[in-house]
Design a protein that fits this description.
The chain has 8 helices and 20 strands. It is an alpha+beta fold. The longest helix is centred in the middle third of the chain and has 18 residues.
Length: about 350
Amino acid sequence: MTDQQLVNLIGVSKVYDGTAALKGIDLYIRRNEFLTLLGPSGCGKTTTLRLIGGFEQPTTGRILFEGTDVTGVPPYKRRVNTVFQRYALFSHMNVFENIAFGLRIKKMDEKSIRAKVGKMLELVGLAGYEKRSVDSLSGGQQQRVAIARALVNEPEVLLLDEPLAALDLKLRKEMQHELKNMQKQLGITFLFVTHDQEEALSMSDTIAVMKDGEIQQIGTPEDIYNEPKNAFVAGFIGESNIVDGIMHQDKLVEFAGQFFDCVDGGFAPQEPVDVVIRPEDIKLVAPEEAKLQGIVRSVTFIGVHYEMIVEAAGIDWLVHSTLMEPPGAEVGLYVTPMDIHIMKKVAAG
């Protein structure tokens, strides 16, 4: 992946009927990058994708493509292609003609069309399906046709608007790997929209977490998961225990009635903070070995580990562990300073 910026959004906002869907965001996408816009419904991620694709125009701000302002340029004149959640295939055309559609519009010669469509069918694992009706295909196969139809036009940016949402879990996971491999193989910039945190973490080079029309944090999957910037990001990316705390001084925080060493600083003395501890970072030990003691209230086996709720200091703590403690057991909850993440409180709304 190169650091060359391919797409730039500068102060882009979008207002619908007096309601701001986007609030002056700045975002750049690098050449050959797999960037995911992640957030709940209504956060502005699909609006951002549609603005980049040219399907909507910003209320304020500019959109640049390799430094050239394309804000008013229509979709067909942008070097992008889009795969929508519902695929939008032509049911009266077979697989071959669906994929060839854009090439025929460009009046490409038949020999070139056959070569390019054949290459795409190989890439998406549908060689031999040329004459099949798209209505006879499974959801996963239809999605592959939609991707091939978009890629055959050799866009510099492929926009994917929740394209895996309609697939079952097993097929969705398979397609996650396939999409990432395609992106690496083709060297095309992918902008992917999803509300699925696992999808974003497993596929992306970079994730932009959005909420209420604003970008909350941009970073690698590792950065977003391990160093969330606020309680919203921590709660949206993976499961978290988020509790109120007081930062007494650098590297010393109080929560759940106890003082704990941590590794964070830069807060005002006695500043109220959000304390985030991932459930896999809590180790259950003998009660006397930890500052926090509690009672196991429930245990659920979820395949790779046990999910336990432990009540301690009036708080229900979520704990993930491969070792199970039975309901009613008295336990200590041990966390290292590295596993205590301190974040500034963010006003609601």
